[in-house]
């Protein structure tokens, strides 16, 4: 059975590219905002508890929702104004911007920066939770607890993922 790949042209490529660029940045922003909320609760529990008691967290969440909807709009608009979208060679359903620099600075660089910041925050969250757990076990048994194999695998996985994302964006597009 032969599958025929369709190639988008004209308005269809523009629409698909705008949706893809917006969607990728939107998902990344939602992820980083959720990580920031967890980071705030774990690293600053007294301040977070005070905000919860005064019902101020709803304003923070509303601001995050509005920012996650509005902020990703710049990327597809910048790429569309710079040169538009064209279908990629493989897979043909992905539409990229015509200009390499516009793709890199509007989509790939913000994603890489946000993923690096989010991965660092996740590592700090895990470190803080582990520190809290080892403090409790230290008070009970008077010896420190080493990282388990699952936790060391998580740390290695996040490190490899952040290293991969930070280096892969440099090699996505050919340089001039």
Q: What's the mean pLDDT score?
A: 77
Low-pLDDT runs of 5+ residues are 1-5
Helix content: over 70%
Distance between the termini: 40 Å
How many H/I helices? 6
Tally of strands = 2
Strands of the largest sheet, in order across it? 1-2
Structural class: mainly alpha
What is the CA-based Rg, rounded?
A: 21 Å
Percent of sequence in beta strands = under 5%
What shape does the CA trace take? flat
Instruction: Tell me the domain tally.
Output: 1
Order of helices and strands: HHHHEEHH
- Largest sheet, strands/sense/barrel: 2 strands, antiparallel
Index terms:
about 180 residues; about 70% helix; mainly alpha; disordered N terminus; flat
What's the short story on this structure?
The chain crosses the membrane at residues 21-40, 60-81, 102-127. With 176 residues, this protein is mainly alpha-helical.
Compile the SSE list and pairings.
Elements: H1 11-43, H2 45-53, H3 57-70, H4 74-82, E1 85-87, E2 95-97, H5 100-141, H6 149-168
Antiparallel strand pairs: 1-2
Helix pairs in contact: 1-2, 1-3, 1-4, 1-5, 4-5, 5-6
Transmembrane segments: 21-40, 60-81, 102-127
Keywords: Membrane, Transmembrane, Transmembrane helix
């Amino acid at each position: 059975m032969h599958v025929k790949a369709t190639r988008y042209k004209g308005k269809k490529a523009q629409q698909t590219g705008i949706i893809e660029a917006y969607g990728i940045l939107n998902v990344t922003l939602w992820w980083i905002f959720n990580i920031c909320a967890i980071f705030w609760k774990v690293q600053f529990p007294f301040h977070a508890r005070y905000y919860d008691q005064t019902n101020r967290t709803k304003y923070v969440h509303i601001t995050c929702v509005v920012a996650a909807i509005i902020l990703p709009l710049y990327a597809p608009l910048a790429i569309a104004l710079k040169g538009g979208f064209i279908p990629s060679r493989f897979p043909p359903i992905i539409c990229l911007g015509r200009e390499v620099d516009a793709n890199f600075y509007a989509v790939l660089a913000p994603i890489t920066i946000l993923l690096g910041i989010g991965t660092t925050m996740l590592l700090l969250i895990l470190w803080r939770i582990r520190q809290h757990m080892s403090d409790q076990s230290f008070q009970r048994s008077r010896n420190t607890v080493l990282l388990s194999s699952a936790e060391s695998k998580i740390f290695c996985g996040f490190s490899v993922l952040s290293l991969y994302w930070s280096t892969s964006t440099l090699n996505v597009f050919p340089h001039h």
